[in-house]
Amino acid sequence: MDAIARFFRKVGFLIRRENFDSELEEEMLFHREQQAMNLQSEGMSREDAQHTARRRFGNDAHLREQSREVVSFGLESVFQDSRFTLRQLRKNPGFAITAVLMLTLGVAACLALFAFVDAALIKPLPYTDPNRLVAVYESAAVFPRSNLSWQDFLDWKKSQKVFTTFDVWTGAGFLFNTPSGVQPVMGARVSAGFFNTLGVMPTLGRDFRPGEDAPDAPHTGLITWAAWQQRFGGRSDIIGQVATLDGTPTTIVGVLPRDFHFALRGRADFWLPIQELNGCEKRRSCHNLYGVARLKDGVTVETALADMKSIAAELEKQYPDSNHGQGAAVITLSEAIVGDVRHIFLVLFCGAALLLLIACVNVANLLLVRAENRRREMAVRGALGASRGRLLLQWVTESLVLVLVGSAFGLAAAYGSMQLLLRLIPSDMLDNMPYLQDLSLNSRVLGFASLVALLAVIIFSLAPSLRLSSTQLRADLAEGGRSSAGTVWRRFGSNLVVVELAIAVVLLAGAGLITRSFYHLLHVPLGFAPDHLATLEIAAPEKTYAKPEQQVQLSRNLLAAVNVLPGTQSSALTSRLPISGNGNTTWIRIQGHPWNGEHNEVNEREVSSRYFATLKTRLISGRLFTESDRSASQQVIIINQALAKRYFPGEDPIGKVIGDTELDPKSLRHIVGVVDDIRESQLNEEIWPAVYYPFNQGPDTYFDIVVRTSQAEQALLPELVATVHKIDPNIGTRDPLTMKQIINNSPAAYIQRSAAYLVAGFALVALLLGVVGLYGVIAYSVSQRTREIGVRMALGAQRSSVYQLILKEAGLLTAFGVAAGLACSIAAATFMGKLLFGVRSWDLPTLAGVALLLGASALLASFIPARRAASVNPVEALRAE
Amino acid sequence: MTRKADLLPGTLDMLILKTLKRAPLHGYGIAFSIKTLSHDVLTVEEGSLYPALQRLLLQGWVKAEWKMTETNRRARYYRLTAAGRKQLSHELSQFDEIIAAITRVLQNA
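^ inputs. structure came back:
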């Protein structure tokens, strides 16, 4: 109680500090004047009286200071310590700069990655009560999470008992009429309750009303904030405007909130209700939708999954053909959104945290050495009456100053590197990670920074204060800080270096493994030659090119125009480019083979006649497509080797017939050729069986052009776009990319490459810090042992044995560090797990390489001090004592 | 100059409290009072009164207040609080014990 009252009185004094000083002064002045008056009345002259009064009063500045100290919080001593610290650091700029630089590096890396982790994993999604939202999928043998079919969705929605609301969405692209021509835009189609399920209210206008997804309802749409700003100039009368999408006038009824994003779709400017069902949505066997639902109170994800599974099982009985093997999958929406990136972010964050740790260890070691060198200072101050607490406070102040400066620089550097990293992410990738766009030094990041700083201060002040015991102080005073290094330093300092080296090994090994894995990824067999290929995505207006013949004619015109461009060697079309991922599948059944209702899921692509020649894909047997494969001629099909191996083992597939699950006569196609496995999948995924149809026998308005050129493919891209628009300015084009760009920016390659760069960067810094740390330790040890070495040499030790002495010390530390590091590396690599492709976690060449690199660097670092030790002049060494 | 006797450590606070027990006084009054009451034997280094007064204020044993003196000058008067009274009696009894102990030692030695 008393303490609290005292505290508040102190606060009172602090608040009235100005008053306090002036009142004290007035009071003292009054005292002296009274005294002087008194003395004068005793007969002293006025001048003498004043003089005597002042003398009797004492040193009034000192007394004021004393009075102030009584009521202060001891802050004065902190200021004093800080001033002293800054003076000390200025006197020893090498130490200060090194320590601050290391801290800045560590803090910056750690904070920047924490900001990413925060934006992706900690910050809640911009929906109402996002924890109650789930993503709902069907499941099939090859797709654990596959799309829902519209028909199945209607049945699921009707029968389910676990969701308050259940809606679906699917990605869509629209051709948007603008004054400057037609632009292809990204969008999505949703069931009318979609935004209600998410709990998102439009900022302007209104949400879809129930029933606005009926086929005969007027055409309405919502736009995102970004689309409102960029496509409509942020005009205030946006509600009620009519946008023409795919030739259909659509009334804009609402603008979504600024912070709204839906990562699963990536960028989507226009959100339209699912109204007219497309061909796919009319069939129960065609899956193109994703489910989003809100759990009822008290319902868990597991319960919901069980409910969906039982409904799926019912449907499987009811529709044995289309729903054979179709199960259900339910996961939280946040898992669906960040499940893939969580691991990589955590791995990178751990790497940065290790870097920070190594930096802290290094600084702690520096402080420890400094403490050794200041033993005498501390001992003298202790002897002059400084309490242990006061000495400790000095260390705490020093650490505080270092950490504050380091953290401030670190924060600035973290902000810079966050912006840099964001800019390095291609916009396509960023569209799929919209939560990264408001990456900032928010309160959580700042809180984390404070926590890191606090821990650092504790570690740094603990390290040197270990030796502040009173007996130690006395010994230090007696020793005068001259002779051999203290036992405390020997015990802690050298062990800290082992920790540093071990961490460096872990980071190096991690970097080595990711780099090797990245190399593997870039060298997977592609089944085609990726150089000199330019590609362009085409979206032709469906109203102009409604009939298949028109689509075929368009494709011929386009290819003919492209073929006359200078440098073109060959050109072709495909419904989907390689490396874009498994998907767009169909179910096949082979005529004459036993079939038990299973769904043989294979990739399906429509390609033009010169496709395989353009890609330089090897024909294994049979023939390629020709221009005479047209709609009127025999229906033909080319399969890849994976399909041949899986479904025609020991058989020649040429001439065999493939159809749909019911072997509908219209679906039957004759196999005319087998081609090498083109990597349709992501680089790190399996090759699936694939079928290729002639484009002419299954044309579309959406396709990609692929051109092989003898010139630089990059330069061809703008010409390609211009050529397409010359044929029809209303055709939308997207993503002019070279095949090399597609490969390098494919998610798998991108993630591996950025992880490799980042971890390699961390590892190099760690190696540098570790080696510098070792150098520091050995150099310090040598300086402390000069006398011992002098004695040894005076007694006849050879220079070579002095080398041996020092190198043995360094070698031992390095060996411990490397051994501990290798053990930890294997554990770390297991943690990296699925990030690695084609590399085992205990990849021997990598680990051996790392050990060798670190060993060599360590040897180099310890050679310099060893040389200094060996060149000690024994006479001088002994005299110096 | 008068003879000076060093105060026993820790007794200044007690003397101030005791002086204030009779009536509220300003700093000079306290110093004057201690000096006259001890027949000029105890002279505080007058300035050291003020850090001590701050200490007493902080402990809540005295309260301060600006008032006019008889000669119409502004001065800070210190007044003993209830807690100060308790502290004084506590210190006095402790002091008595110490003096008694010292006396016993001196008489028997």
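The radius of gyration of chain B is 15 Å. Residues 82-108 of chain B form the longest helix (27 residues).
thumbs up if we can close this ticket
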